[in-house]
Amino acid sequence: QMCGSRPDMAHSPRPGPGAWDLDVPLIESDTTLEQRVAGTGTHLRRWPVAQVFIQWLMESGCEELGWSRARTAAAGEAERVRLVELGSGTGWVGLVLSLNLAGARLTLTDHPSAVAHLRANVVQAAASKLAGMTPPEGRAL
């Protein structure tokens, strides 16, 4: 089955067959005026485009990219989907992918000043939602 191949389930608040679990615990905060002026702090929140991207993956993107749950969960090492997210911020996109594409190899990256926050979100999600799964790796760019 292609991941997210049941659009009728994609908008369901509760995950079911074909639906994605989007409920990933995050440490988020609003940026201060000083952070915005300095161009920092953008990693502290989930951006709307992240939600649009995941929605596209659920509805048709996985099929267009050839990602299937079977390919990610049961594939041998050479066939696994491997993803690198540049500028991961809170890590929400990568964590949602980890939760819904079990077996995919993910590396989340961000600016060195943002990596501690990213890793904290990965640890929190791994403890509560990704038990028994390989959580994504967080690295500095």
From TrEMBL:
Gene3D superfamilies: Vaccinia Virus protein VP39
Residue numbers spanned by region Disordered: 1-21
Signal peptide annotation: none
Source taxon at top rank: Eukaryota
Protein name according to UniProt: Calmodulin-lysine N-methyltransferase
Organism per entry: Eutreptiella gymnastica
